[in-house]
Amino acid sequence: xxxxxxxxxxxxxxxxxxxxxxxxxxxxxxxxxxxxxxxxxxxxxxxxxxxxxxxxxxxxxxxxxxxxxxxxxxxxxxxxxxxxxxxxxxxxxxxxxx
Length: 98
Fold this sequence. Notes:
The protein is of the alpha+beta class. The protein has one domain. It is built from two helices and five strands; from the N terminus they run E-H-E-E-E-H-E. A five-stranded mixed sheet has the order 1-2-3-4-5, with helices on one face. The longest helix is centred in the last third of the chain and has 7 residues, at 73-79. 32% of the residues are buried.
């Protein structure tokens, strides 16, 4: 039986997410937002244009689906309606995402 993970909204997690991506592959506004918070320059892409800092002490990426996230306002509102974090209009998926 396949396990289906869901976003806080209850929607199924999009194919290919979550995944670790280099911060240099995402929108410059988020690069600036995460400055000083990253270990090895990595973030977890939770959905297209939505991220959270990666912590190697928490290797199970599903754990990042709850908690603060930052990125595109529309995507955050849809999948992470009550999470803390910041948003900007028009954040596109990074170049290392599906």
